[in-house]
Amino acid sequence: MKSSHHDHNIPSTPGKFKPEKSNLYHRFRLHYSHPTKPTFWGFVFLCLIFIIFLNSSPSDQPLKTQSWGGSEWEKRVKSSSKIRSKSGFSVLVTGAAGFVGTHVSAALHHRGDGVLGLDNFNDYYDITLKRARQDLLQKSGIYILEGDINDAVLVKKLFEVVHFTHVMHLAAQAGVRYAMKNPKSYVHSNIDGFVNLLEICKSAEPQPAIVWASSSSVYGLNTKVPFSETDRTDQPASLYAATKKSGEEIAHAYNHIYGLSLTGLRFFTVYGPWGRPDMAYFLFTKNILKGKAIRVYESGDHGTVSRDFTYIDDIVKGCLGALDTAEKSTGSSGKKKGDAQFRVFNLGNTSPVSVSDLVSILEKLLKVKAKRRVMKLPRNGDVQFTHANISLAQRAFGYKPTTDLQTGLKKFVRWYEGYYGLRKKSHH
Hints:
The protein has a 7-stranded parallel beta sheet, sandwiched between helices. A two-stranded parallel sheet has the order 7-10. It starts with 23 loop residues before the first helix and ends in a 9-residue tail after the last helix. The protein is built from 13 helices and 15 strands. It has a domain at 71-267 and 312-347 and 387-402: Rossmann fold. It is globular. Strand 11 (331-332) and strand 12 (335-336) form a beta hairpin. Helix 4 packs parallel to helix 5 and helix 6 (152-161) runs parallel beside helix 7. It has helices spanning 24-33, 37-54, 71-81, 99-110, 127-138, 152-161, 183-203, 239-258, 280-290, 312-324, 355-366, 391-397, 405-419; strands at residues 90-94, 114-119, 143-146, 166-169, 209-213, 262-267, 270-271, 293-298, 306-307, 310-311, 331-332, 335-336, 342-347, 353-354, 371-376. By secondary structure, it is α/β, with parallel strands linked by helices.
């Protein structure tokens, strides 16, 4: 497998944390050996009640947390979070096995920050890709704990073990169209999970500064181009966008009431190596190589559908810039001591490209003609175009994207062919 450019100069990693195997089965057999009938059936009944309780939650989304705790576990958490540079931070990265989370974690670690990852490894897309990213990070000494941001006991424990200076909150249920199939998962992750994290951060000592991922989707039905952070965002076009917009409003409330320093980042169509398999460029690449037809959408009036495609390295620079300029939170013991920083930035490429042109670039790079099926853009929450105004981020931390789509896709295709073993062997 070909590695990304972030994983050079990496030391060996400690072995994976292995939760202790339960001996419940053996204990059950001991109880079963000589039971009185009431005791046995009472035990079975209690087990059933316990199982039902574990599997019930308001959103039908059971928490996914592996065994944790103990001195060895704490040692590993502290080791991963240890700052290794003079002016470094200790950062909790949620969604660390995700596309952006993996790249941001690697970049933070590479420059000497302490990094602890948290990810629930949900099956929205191929888990083997998430595990491969996890392995990549753990080889460099970054521990990714398997757990859910809704697990308040776990998250509180992490803040007791490590005094994080910053949180990079990238965990979220992604995707616009999937919200029509599983709406509760978006509320569970993007709203409930965010509130749970904020609740714990407000009471942490010291309170961390928080940078979190919003989305360009919050602009919804806005027809102004390019999108500016001062534009109205109260007409979301999808449930996903609505949950992300809700996150911005919730963040503002916690900033105002508890003095938490909060910076929101609106990402614009991020792509690149180790990317998300549900994204158009990834699906196009897969289907073009397999000779399958691809859907190229156009608007109702035959207008082009365009996206402000932003290469992952540019997004990482923006994330680190936001983290570096985030001011300290002002609260203590859950009480606000003074006004705290609250910011929202666009992170885009400022160069929208039509989906049709995206396909043309991929055809040249893959040396395969695509079987295009032009279709009308469905009413599923997708918008016709996105275009970021990035002047605020430029002024605040010098954000300046440098990778055009042609260059970025070339790097993606090279990674894709290496990861999936498609690179042609040279003949001698």
